[in-house]
Write a sequence for this structure.
């Protein structure tokens, strides 16, 4: 561990290929995540993958499955403040590598609320074909675009029905989290 400032833990070391690897938490929500990525860019970061959890919007998703985000819908304040209505498309090569590790690929929404039950917005997102909702990826991708770094997103379905349904817990959560991390690392190593 090299960092625990602001309660955000960071680890550094060498990946299996001998290259430097950093794993950094960024807190909950776009503002916190954007600050962390900006500061990592200041330290020389060139490529990153957001791995994290999400709530299902699609009925086709099962708890513990992995989603590669090939398009992000910025319904959060941070990405809107940074890039407005600009398209939020992750790095193509990294996204293809993540898609090979994922159970699903598709559009994901970033919002400021995770527990947004019965909202008209949820119904619009579902109608648009969005698979899931989370809180940080659009803000991170907006920073990545502004800072010209390569960036992609891989998520684990931890909650059903956009945070209002069943929740992945215990050993199942640990196993899915390990799979998420390994898939992200595989794609990161392959994109160098």
């Amino acid at each position: 561990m090299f960092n625990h400032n602001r309660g955000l833990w960071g680890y550094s070391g060498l990946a299996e290929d001998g290259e430097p690897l950093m794993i950094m938490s960024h807190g909950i929500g776009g503002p916190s995540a954007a600050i962390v990525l900006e500061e990592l860019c200041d330290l020389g970061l060139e490529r990153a993958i957001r791995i994290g959890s999400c709530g299902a919007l699609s009925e086709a998703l099962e708890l513990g499955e992995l989603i590669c985000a090939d398009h992000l819908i910025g319904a959060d304040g941070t990405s809107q403040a940074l890039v407005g209505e600009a398209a939020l498309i992750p790095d193509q090569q990294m996204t293809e590598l993540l898609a090979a590790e994922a159970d699903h690929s598709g559009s994901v929404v970033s919002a400021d609320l995770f527990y947004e039950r019965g909202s008209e917005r949820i119904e619009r997102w579902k109608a648009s074909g969005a698979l899931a909702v989370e809180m940080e990826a659009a803000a991170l991708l907006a920073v990545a675009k502004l800072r010209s770094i390569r960036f992609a997103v891989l998520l684990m379905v931890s909650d059903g029905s956009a945070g209002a349904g069943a929740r992945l817990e215990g050993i199942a959560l640990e196993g899915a989290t390990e799979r998420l991390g390994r898939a992200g690392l595989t794609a990161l190593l392959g994109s160098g």
